[in-house]
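Entry type: protein chain
Record version: 2
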Amino acid sequence: MSEQLSEKFKEVLDLREKAKLGGGTEAIEKQHKGGKLTARERIEKLVDKGSFVEVDQFVVHRCYDFDMEKKKALGDAVVTGYATVDGRPVFIYSQDFTFVGGSLSEMHAKKITKIQDMALKAGAPVIGLNDSGGARIQEGINSLAGYGEIFYRNVQASGVIPQIIAIMGPCAGGAVYSPALADFIFMVRKTSYMFITGPKVVKAAIGEDVSFEVLGGADSHTKLSGVAHFACENDEDCIKQIKTLLSYLPSNNMDDAPIIECADPPDRADEELNEVVPADPKKPYDVHDVINHVFDKGSFYEVQPNFAMNAVVGFARLNGRSIGVVANQPMIYAGCLDIDSSDKIARFVRTCDAFNIPLVTFVDVPGYLPGTKQEHGGVIRHGAKVIYAYSEATVPKLTVIMRKSYGGGYIAMCSRHLGADVVFAYPTAEIAVMGPQEAIEIIHRNELMKAKTPEEAKEIISRLVADYKNKFANPYVASQLGYVDAVILPKETRLALTKALEALITKRELSSRIPKKHGNLPA
């Protein structure tokens, strides 16, 4: 090898090593002291060993204002490229807080949009590991333009490839909208936060003192706002959970999710499941007990577990296949639907439908939550989202009515009338306009007013409620009308769902749907 060629090769290797340092060794040490991994360390832990191929490693910014020409680092505060996770291709960008706080510049944004474009063309998930102080102020409109380009691609990729973003540091101002446009958001407790305006601006604007964590920390966004889906203990936990989520998702909207070899017999019938759902509609129980009995053991991965807890959504596996699970939670608000749970369910249903993941819905719902707070908050328009999401979904839709299924709640929770393919009901199911006692008090109010004593009124109510249940509030009336396909014992749920899914896995909607550009989702 000639000396000149050797020098050229050495130059490449030296630049690669320089690029790996980002903002320098001191900044890397500070990142570690703050309990965070570096941008490159996060990628290494996420992807299969040796699979990462970096793109645009030598990119630098083009700003010469405010002495920025003196501050340059190869890569310009973001590491981008492609790799495999559990053997499946993914595209990744990981912001590097060690250089100017990971702020987004024109070139930084170009690197991210290039990866977004590559992911969309390849039909592979895009994963963003965000750790940035926001727009690079020194670049003015160029940094804002960069965000706009990213947002536009988020929307183009929506429903086509999975978009997963982990907030692993600050994410403020306009930067929050790219995660908001993605499919799933992870946050790390104590080291990450998201907000439109920070505590200082809040204090100046409205005089409110609030900490970073309370204003926009992981717990605030996974419990109160519902903006984020998962709260993680540290960077390692976050990366582990991203890999778990990926295992349930297809690479794109034309693929099916991976099928995992299953050692759990599809015909497993747990006698214990017969005891989980009480006959008394007012007695609470934990719907997780039903879910964990029915699906492949240990496979349920809950989404937004701490937000709107009167509804449970998440992924599970049925005989190795990825399934989207939606359930009312009788332990919270008796399983009522409200504003937040409606948003939670509708968003999850649409995500599953976009990515060809069949839906199983467990119903125990007395209706929508009453009260001025809900009405004035727009429960009507929010509740309509559930109806809209189920109605437009074309994936296999299986419904299990466990107990209460009253009024609008019955219709909204994937009833036959919204296109459910197969509807099962337990013997404990009560399908009616409202609960038996409430119905009797309305229908027979004149007769009850004639009762001479409270005891007599109680006896009349008891007799009429029993008669109402016998005639209306049971699964057999709906079954006779064809709205319920089969009344099953709880222990038979796993096998019934497995067989139904096998029959429907090749489901295709008939071409009779009216052509349109798109529908108008309730706001």
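Comment: The mean pLDDT is 92.
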